[in-house]
Amino acid sequence: MSFADLGLSDKVLQAVSAAGYTEPTPIQAQAIPHVLARRDVLGIAQTGTGKTAAFTLPMLTMLETGRARARMPRTLILEPTRELAAQVEENFERYGTNHKLNVALIIGGVSFADQDAKLTRGTDVLIATPGRLLDHFERGKLLLTGVELLVIDEADRMLDMGFIPDIERIVKMVPFTRQTLFFSATMPPEIERLADMFLHNPQRVEVARPASTATTIEQRLVATGAEGHEKRKVLRQLIRSASELQNGIIFCNRKRDVAQLQRSLTSHGFNAAALHGDMDQRARMAALDGFRSGEVPLLVASDVAARGLDIPAVSHVFNFDVPHHPEDYVHRIGRTGRAGRSGAAFTLASRADERSLSAIESLIGRPIEWLDGDLASLPDDAEGDEPRRRRGTRRAKGSERGAEKGSERPSERTSERSSESRSRGGRRAASDRGRGEETRRESIREPEPVSPAREPARSAPERSRSERRPPRRDEDDDTPVGLGSHVPAFLLKPTGFGKSK
Ligand code: AMP
Fold first, then answer.
1. Residue ID of nearest Cα to ligand 1 atom 12
2. Domain check: are 83 and 132 in the same one?
3. Number of Cβ within a 10 Å radius of residue 63
4. Residue bearing the CA closest to ligand 1, atom 21
5. What is the pTM of this model?
6. What's the 91 CA to ligand 1 centre distance in angstroms?
7. Pocket of ligand 1 from Cβ distances under 6 Å
8. What is the pLDDT of residue 282?
9. Ligand 1 midpoint to CA 471 (Å)
10. Do 55 and 95 have their domain in common?
């Protein structure tokens, strides 16, 4: 099957061949003819499958006829995050080089004025995050009654982020007769319900089993204590000893940990940038650009970066925290091992994470090997904040999801978002995890020499926790020694880029 067989216009075909694509991906081959036939499409596809072009290419073809009117966009694409929205805009730029279409990006974190000007000029394609779109609507700057085609992308992510009430409001504002394309990586019952509500006799297109992890990714669990300084030390040693590390994303569950970890890595001589939802848009784009260009090889990120971002060829993913939602694990490690390349994913796990680990293993359908000894190999004082319990048991305190402070949430609007209603988590692994299966790698818990403090001051809650404990040596305060010959030079910071903001 070639692109020419799909019914795309000549202008689009030229742009596709200029982009170097020779063959459509399965989601493109399956979805594009239905989109062009004006059918509603339910696409079940993860990022990395080429799903963005599966809707941008036929949209460009269809938009060649007709023209936009002021404040009345012809098509609307809803994205859960600003980065994803910006990425879709880039797709329109790349594939729309032969078109003269007005594309407007309506996202939070940037001024309204420029966005207003674009809307007034008339837009063919409006790409928006839900919060900012509603803000414009409420200010009377936008009419959605001219929308002929609506794309709801990453619907399961929208659900995770509490956007569904906003989406339902927006869908009520667009004409009932519109064409709708609805994409989601997974189809939990709540998403099925929305698909039933929004789509009319849709063509269902599914390209990859949700929740599968690529076989090209080497996955390992790394046992660690729960304290931040211990985890940071283990992470540094992991990075130093990782083989063939080109670049890596380090995921944290909480935004404040992203900032702290990036500062810590930087102070230890690593070249790392931070990406989380509380950063302003310019800083987020600068961090992403630096990482994409290879200037900054390490990106410390919250889950906002886990889904959808098109960052080619990431060699390593490090989960500084075990994600509370098993699906997030799949999305995080999906940043590596893309397009048949090999990749490595390391997950730091403490005894407090046993339940989340069980849920992940249950979701991916197999146990994950430990790198260098499982939780039972940890010393007795490695309990972190957890009550002491039997070593190596799988029991842990209840899931903290949604309860933690600073967990990633959309911050575009001042209003509180409705809490999520997911029916996930808490699943226990039926499988035994093959304890004691150790790979023969350098130990990563080797002590480092002690030296004066370098780490920035800790946050108040962390300080008070450590004050309750018996005095102990803070290993994270070590001078960054051991960065000799076995540290790839590109990991060392050549410039001030990525310094704490
Ligand atoms: P997406 O799933 O939309 O995030 O796309 C993932 C990556 O695949 C992007 O880097 C696209 O540029 C690339 N891509 C999209 N379609 C094709 C294609 N037909 N052939 C090769 N690469 C593609």
1. 50
2. yes
3. 23
4. 21
5. 0.58
6. 10
7. 21, 23-25, 28, 47-53, 310, 312
8. 82
9. 53
10. yes
Quote the tokens at residue 231. 């985890």
Same domain, 235 and 187: no
Is the pLDDT reported for residue 260 higher than 90? yes
Task: Note down the domain range covering 59.
Answer: 3-206
Q: What is the per-residue pLDDT across 50-68, written as a single tens digit (0 to 9) for each?
A: 899 999 999 999 999 988 8
- Do 155 and 259 lie in a common domain? no
CA distance to 67, 220, 398, per residue, from 430 (Å): 57, 19, 18
The percent of residues above 90 in pLDDT, for the chain, comes to: 49
Q: Whose CA is nearest to atom 1 of ligand 1?
A: 50
445 found inside a domain? no
Nearest alpha carbon, ligand 1 atom 23: 50
Give the model confidence (pLDDT) of 330-387 as tens digits.
888 877 876 556 789 999 999 999 999 999 998 888 899 999 888 888 776 655 443 3
Neighbours of 415 (CB within 10 A): 9
Cα separation, 234 vs 250, in Å, equals: 13
Claim to verify: residue 250 and residue 183 sit in the same structural domain? no
Q: Name the band, by pLDDT with cuts 50, 70 and 90, for residue 470.
A: very low
Task: Find the Cα–Cα–Cα–Cα dihedral 19, 88, 320, 499, rounded to 10°.
Answer: 90
pLDDT of 10 reads: 96
In a domain, 176, yes or no: yes
State which ligand 1 atom lies nearest to the alpha carbon of 49: 2
